[in-house]
Amino acid sequence: MTTSASTSRRLFIASAISVLTLISAFVLIQKALAFEQPPSLMFWVGVIAVWLAAWFGVDMFAKLKIKNQMLDRAVSLLIPVLFGVWLLILWQLITTGFKVPTVLLPPPSAIGARFAASIPTLWADFQQTFLKAVLIGYVLGCGSAFIVAIAIDRSPFLQKGLMPIGNLMSALPIVGVAPIMVMWFGFDWPSKAAVVIIMTFFPMLVNTIAGLNDNTEIQRDLMKTYAAGYWQTLFKMRLPLAMPFIFNALKINSTLALIGAIVAEFFGTPIVGMGFRISTEVGRMNVDMVWAEIAVAALAGSAFYGAIALLEKISTFWHPSMRQNKRA
């Protein structure tokens, strides 16, 4: 199905507004860079006018009701991209226009230049922190919590004995645990993976147990009429129903794992890693490099979260929360 004529017209207008405002923003950025003193009031009036026009264009995109599924997905993806681009544009205009010292807040252009010039260093830090500490700790933490949740569900004794310990682990401060893990496992990535395991264990444990209990008496009685035992009921009914809870924990832990690994690197690490680079470059006043590391962490965390969300969508397509509401 194709979009209606009025929808096509509004789509064209929104696209034209977005393109024109982006061109205007580029011109404003060039003027801000050319000023030796802070720009005049009329410059900032122009910035506000262009920003309001861009807001109007994005709002038009958001209100479109498109029947073509591929075009609708493209527009849905374009809206957050435009929103993020305009945040960077405003950041650039404010820092360059008001001559903000780079040691306080560097402009995105400086961060991008440092990012491009430091790709080998950033890649090495990414490998040390994300590919080793985060992923390994994430798999071990979530996997062990899932197994323990099954054991707790199977044994009332473990439910009463292990759950309080799980609550205790969730309350452990990372700034206190990280130095201990460094002393136990050394300065390399295993100590950071241990911190990640501790941080991801409890959310996975609690959500899995909640998911296993998210079934009705009618559903349980149905499995009994089929003469299903514990394990058959678990794999045929309870685990599928618990998948939204499990994926919720996986998504939460995808961000917790990265935060835990980076913070843990502040307390002892080899001369590589995101946390190490951030702490050392702050001491050297290389704030643009700090922001470049933050950008890498943000991109890695977002991609990790998005991959898990996509896997959830594929695995739990049958769940009501996964059913897309088509625009009228």
What features would you highlight for this structure?
mainly alpha; single chain; 328 residues
Annotate the secondary structure layout:
Layout: H1 5-34, H2 41-63, H3 69-97, H4 108-117, H5 119-154, H6 156-170, H7 174-185, H8 189-212, H9 217-225, H10 230-264, H11 274-283, H12 287-315
Q: Name the beta content range.
A: under 5%
CATH architecture of the largest domain: Orthogonal Bundle
CATH topology (level 3) name of the largest domain: MetI-like fold
Number of strand elements: 0
Question: C-alpha Rg, in Å?
Answer: 25 Å
User: What pattern of helices and strands is seen along the backbone?
Assistant: HHHHHHHHHHHH
CATH homolog superfamily of the largest domain: MetI-like
Q: Given the structure, what is the number of helices? A: 12
Question: Level of helix content?
Answer: over 70%
Mean pLDDT: 85
End-to-end separation in angstroms reads: 13 Å
Q: Mind describing the biggest β-sheet?
A: none
Given helix and strand content, the structural type is: mainly alpha
| Overall 3D form | flat
What number of domains? 2
CATH class descriptor of the largest domain = Mainly Alpha
Catalogue the unreliable spans: none
